Structure prediction request, 117 residues.
Amino acid sequence: MNLLSRVAATAAALPLLAGATLASAAPANAAPSGIADCPYPYVCLYDSQTKRKVGQFKDITSGYQAITNRTYHVKNTRYDDVAYFRHFSSYVCIAPRAVTDLPAVNGIRISSEAKCR
Prediction:
């Protein structure tokens, strides 16, 4: 195979290689369809039915901030802070970089703790 043939064969293979690389670059934890972007360092709340963003929080607080009592889809983009959600006298903890659905909750508190306890 002469040099010109090798260059042509390499050039023809490049789009195939590029396509394979792009296809494999999709994140494993992609958000469910309809979830809007949630930038770092926020904990974002989405309506559990429509997946429309209804709130976002970023401040670490010592107490709970009141939120509407309903079910939420939650995305915690923080790297090393957990988010606690209150439902009357019990709570649910969401780990850093987690996405999940929650039962009806009525308060949020972001903590500097790295893990749920």
